[in-house]
Amino acid sequence: MPFKQMENVTAFIQACRKLGVLEKDVFSTVDLFEAKNITSVQRCIFNLGSVIRRTAPEFPGPFLGVAQNAKVGDSKRQSQVLTQYTGLRQDVQEELRTGHNVRVAGQPP
After folding, report:
1. With 80 as the cut, is the pLDDT of residue 43 above it?
2. Average pLDDT of 51-71?
3. Could you tell me which of 63, 30, 31, 62 has the C-alpha nearest to residue 46?
4. Spatial CA neighbour of 65 closest among 84, 78, 74, 52
5. How far apart are CA 39 and CA 27, in angstroms?
6. Taken in order 41, 30, 14, 82, is the CA torsion positive or negative?
7. How far apart are CA 97 and CA 92, in angstroms?
8. Looking only at Cα atoms, what is the longest distance across the chain?
9. How far apart (Å, rounded) are the C-alpha atoms in residues 1 and 16?
10. What is the pLDDT of residue 79?
11. Are the beta carbons of 68 and 40 closer than 8 angstroms?
């Protein structure tokens, strides 16, 4: 039974994302199921009530919250393969590759 309840919560979260609730406003399953962060659950429900007016105009109501008319979108940063040297600014990465401005501890500059 608990597994099915968690599946239902996960389905609700996925529906919120599809309807346009921003990722920052979506709670995680344990927030509700284990009552870890009820405030984030409430925030998600209020944001769903606001976003639904724009993303599902055929829904007649009732509505919860104020309509969100601003268009804000989440975007994922470009993924990269991680190595020992990735994740650094490009100029720092180039200095490491060429050895320019690189000092070794215990040796004179």
Report:
1. yes
2. 81
3. 63
4. 52
5. 9
6. positive
7. 9
8. 74
9. 23
10. 61
11. no
Q: What is the DSSP letter of 107?
A: S
Single-letter code of the amino acid located at 63: F
∠63-67-31 over CA atoms, to 5°? Answer: 70
Q: Which residues contact 8 (CB under 8 A, 6 or more apart)?
A: none
Residue with tokens 């921003």: 22
Q: Taking the model in full, what pTM does it have? A: 0.60
**First CA to last CA across the chain, in angstroms?**
66
Dist CA 49 CA 68 (whole Å): 9
Q: In three state form, how does the secondary structure of 65-92 look?
A: CCCCCCCCCCCCCCCCCCCCCCCCCHHH
Q: Is 105 left (phi over 0), alpha (psi -120 to 50) or beta?
A: beta
